Amino acid sequence: MLNFRGGIHPPENKWFTEEKPIVDAKLPKKVVIPLSQHTGTPCKAIVTIGQDVKKGQRIGEPNGYVSSPVHSSISGKVISIGNFPHPSGKDSPSVVIEGDDRDEWSEGIKERPDYLSLGNDELRKIVMEAGIVGLGGAAFPTHIKLSPPKEKKIETVILNGAECEPYLTSDHRIMVERPNDVFEGLKIIMKILDVTKGYIGIEDNKPDAIETMKEIASSEPGIEVVALKVKYPQGAEKQLIKAILDGEVPSGGLPMDVGVVVQNVGTAVAVYDACRYGKPLIERIITVTGRGVNEPKNLRVRIGTPFSDLLAECGGFRNDPGKVIAGGPMMGIAQTTTEIPVIKGTSGIVVLTRKETEQVEYCPCFRCGRCIDACPMGLQPSILSILIERGRYQEAKENNLFDCFECGSCAYVCPAKRPMVQFMKLGKLFLSPKKG
Predict the structure, then answer these.
(1) Which stretches of 242-302 are assigned E, i.e. beta strand?
(2) What is the CA angle 330-332-334, rounded to 5?
(3) For the segment 120-130, what is each residue's pLDDT rounded down to a tens digit?
(4) Pick from 185, 193, 198: nearest CA to 244
(5) Quick check: pTM over 0.90?
């Protein structure tokens, strides 16, 4: 079985929703659409309070090279523009739209049955104008990934269908329910990048998805479906490249440095929807799950829908909820309120019970080395955490702090219960250039 070094095996807990088909969430009465839903510079609002808007209408313009437009996910009236709670934990400039229940599409949404006959640049422009970003969680603007520098020759595209985070099953259901659209999106991405080899990597705890995708791949030259060992964080870009291609991304480097572009399967479907049907990214599939929610589901959700609406649609809380997490329990962010919106990077809402989230005091490091064995990047998290705890940030940087992608494997295995990820985040914060 294809593999990578390190990693852990937390309880999967996918049984809550892995066999539940995707259903449409109710049309929200009101949406809060942040102007920052992507890695990079936030958008600039191009609507005004009182303005009528339609579904798919652009309401935020990119405000820099690494940026992505945002669109209204419903038709209605703009009732507020200002700072509102955001899943990141910070307030963010947002546009609030009150729905009119008509759900009318904006004029200019154009279908393209001949999308694969379009030129590379035209397809890339469609992806950019649709506001597509990585739907696996990082939310990096997709058109930037599809525009590598000329000196970076891309030879391979990998679609990430691993979905290694515990609890989450939205990508699994996409592959089972929209497999042909995943392939069409991959073919568009390969055409834009002018490559002839594509892989779809799927952890082998999704046998139905693997079987379905392999059947389609048998008639798609140049595309191969690869079954991957179940191990967290199998879905991280560098770990996928190692497992599938036995390639090593250099320290501080990017997948394009070894001729690879990695995209999520949900992103591929969004690319297909934009190029074939002209749809901007105004909705996504998310998993609402956990022992703290009554009726776990996989939902197709409009961007900007409040978490509270979705939790109510899933029967509300049960079993004394302790944490509501945006994303998965390993890399997601615990929320202080349910009045935050689903954004493009929201892969799920996980509700853990109070019993599951009991806090324990952490101890000094006992140098057991378990975190070193678990780190998929070959770092020494114990050393890094001690350096940061003591304020020796430059030394942490010299020990490759910025190669850490905060997967949480070290914290999961630490018998001293040290908050490793928080230490890493703190160190990066102190080392980041100060703005303003």
Answers:
(1) 260-264, 283-289, 297-302
(2) 115
(3) 999 999 999 99
(4) 198
(5) yes
